[in-house]
Amino acid sequence: MSALKSCFARGFSHIYVEEGVEENPLAQEILSKFPKAFKVRIKHYKDVFCRPRQNFLVQESSRKLIIAAKRGELLYPGPDVCQDFGNENFYYTSPALNCIYSCEYCYLKGMHPSANLVIFVNLEDFFKKVEDLIKQKPVYLSISYETDLLALENIAPLSAAWIEFARGKENLKMEIRTKSANYPAIRHLKPADNVILAWTLSPAEVIKKYEKNAPPLELRLRQIKKALGDGWKVRLCFDPVLYFEGWEKAYEDLIGRIFSEIPACGINDASVGAFRIPREYLKRMRKNFPPSEIIHYPYAERGGVYTYDEKLKGELLGKVRSLLKEHLPEEKIFLT
Hints:
336 residues, pyruvate-formate lyase- activating enzyme, 12 helices, five-stranded mixed beta sheet
């Protein structure tokens, strides 16, 4: 059993199924992957996901799965703390909530009351909203803002479904961001010109210390090479850039290694962003999680967002940008 499948097998001992979605084909496909899981019927996903007095930290060790339909708002304007890559109409959508990885710095720990995973199976409703929007204007859409969608592909082929939906739509540009090594799950698909596969890359020290359960750097790089070889547009994301003892050497080693293995000419662009998090999210993380170097660092607050002070932030972004400029043209490097 692969590490990914093993993680799911341990975590999804219970699957909560919202009323009205039992017969949905995607719901049936997901349920078929977990024949031994205990199924619990619920009226609404928030009855479980948003119930009071949950312990995110405890739930991370044994996540449960919730299968539901998303109602109401399905598309949201992209937040200011995220990079729009020069696109005027930046939106995001959330086909799933929460992530199988447990990165210490992840804002999801402060955004959601539960560590359990929610997958929304009413894809047609999502697609209809996007169709209506792109009739009005060009749209840049992130579909993995509140999860790592590609990491979930073995149980819910959402990335593949979104890629096929986006294919050929001139008014739509779509990003799928991931830390996973699960590119083989979509490798059977023909590359879509308007879809960008974006890998978040961190120094080995950061992955080992702060990105619990996420694949090591070498596995991510291996899949990036395969995706490039297959003809996909690939974005490299150095976000968040973190401050820690020896950070300069760590990022020098990281970027040196990347471009010793990956041809720079094949990279679509790169994103660089210092650690930043909304004030309320960090307050919840500090309340609910043990002390850590990242969570309890003395950040500066600007506009309701915590990040490094201007001097340190400038040093972090400047260093990584200068390293990238040795391999990529400046117009391909986007700072946040």
